[in-house]
Each structure stands twice: as C-alpha cells, then as structure tokens.
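Notebook, p. 212. Picked up where the previous page left off. The plan for this session was modest: take the two constructs that came back from the sequencing core last week, fold each one, and keep the raw output in the notebook itself so nobody has to go hunting through shared drives later. Recording the first one now, exactly as returned: residue sequence, then the structure token string.
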Amino acid sequence: QVQLVESGGGLVQAGGSLRLSCAASGRTFSSYAMGWFRQTPGKEREFVASLRWSGLTVYADSVKGRFTISRDNAKNTVYLQMNNLKPEDTAVYSCAAQHFGGKSYDYWGQGTQVTVSS
C-alpha cells in the first residue's frame, strides 16, 4: 500500500511558477512509475506528465516545454516544476503511482489546488 500526499499548490499570476511535491509512503517508492494528472470541475481528469521506470518522461502537449517531472528516491518524493503558468492550467493536481509493469495507476493522492490568475 502506498499513500501519496501532494503539496505546493496555490495562487499565482500568469507567467509565474510553482513546484508541486508528492510525498509517498513505503519502502519501494523507486519501483513505481509516477504520474501527475489534473482536473477541473465538470471535466475529465487530464494526464499531465509521467516518469516511467526507465526514467523516460512523457508530457501532455499542453504543458510540454513548461512543466518538468522529476523524482528524488531518497526522499520518496516526485515533483512537478511548472513554469510560465497560464490561466488554463488552473486545476486540482494529483499524483499517482503505478506498480512496476502495471497497466494503470494503482494509488492516487488527494490533490492540491493550483489557481493561475490572468
């Protein structure tokens, strides 16, 4: 069982930056692929970025070049650095963990609100 807790959300002006953190419990954090997703009211949850077991990073086209996903296995934490934020980035951001070789994400955090003002 893995518990995920996000932090770092807040209110920022357009063009600003935020770094989200996702702290994971458990001793096998390094074996999980990690992802970030976001959701706004009335819309489907949207993929933002993932960090695969191989170290490969994948980004949604809407955030490519602005967001960076990374992890620190010693701290059991995954990060999402968000630069040049836009009002359309406003959402609740959640992190997720996927078992090695899994087909879907197995564990989800509660989310942290990011609001970008114009």
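Okay, moving on. Second construct, recorded in the same format:
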Amino acid sequence: QVELVESGGGLAQPGGSLRLSCAASGSIFSINAMGWFRQAPGKERELVATITSGGKTNYADPVKGRFTISRDNARNTVWLQMNSLKPEDTATYYCGSWGDGKDYWGKGTPVTVSL
C-alpha cells in the first residue's frame, strides 16, 4: 500500500506560479513512476506530467514549456512547478504512483487560476 499526500494548491493569477508537492509513504520500494493528473469540473481526468525513478519525464502538450516535474527518490517526494499559469489550468491536481502492476492516488489539491 502506498499513501500519497499532495500540498501546494491554491489560487494564482494568470501568468503566476504555484508549486505542488506530493509525499509518498508506505510500500515506496514498489514505486517506479510518479506523476500528476488533473481533473477540471465536468471533464475527465487527464495527464499532466510523469517521471520515472530514473528521472525520465513526460509532459502533456498543454503544459510543455510551462510546467516542470521533479523527484527526490531519497525523500520520496515529487514536485510540479507550474509557471505561466492560465485559467484553463484550473483543476484538481492528483498525484499518482505506479509500480508492481498497481497504481495509487492522492486525494487531490485544488488549483484555481483567476484574476
């Protein structure tokens, strides 16, 4: 069992920045990749970015060049630095982990981008 706890969401103005954190605990030895998905009201959950234990990253097209995912394996933590935020980035952001054929999810942290 892996537990994921997100933090860092909130309100930002367009063009602003936020940094999300996700701390993993439990059976962390089983984790390979970690990452972030988001779900806006009335929409399906979508990929934002992922990172493997080896540091290989993958980004969704809408966030490329604006968001950066990073990971500290020793601290079992993954971050999402979000710059140049847009109103369409408004969503609940979920941290996920994958490994040993299982996936785990955090409860999510809300991000609102508005004037």
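Notes on construct two before I forget. The mean pLDDT is 95.
Flagging for discussion at group meeting.
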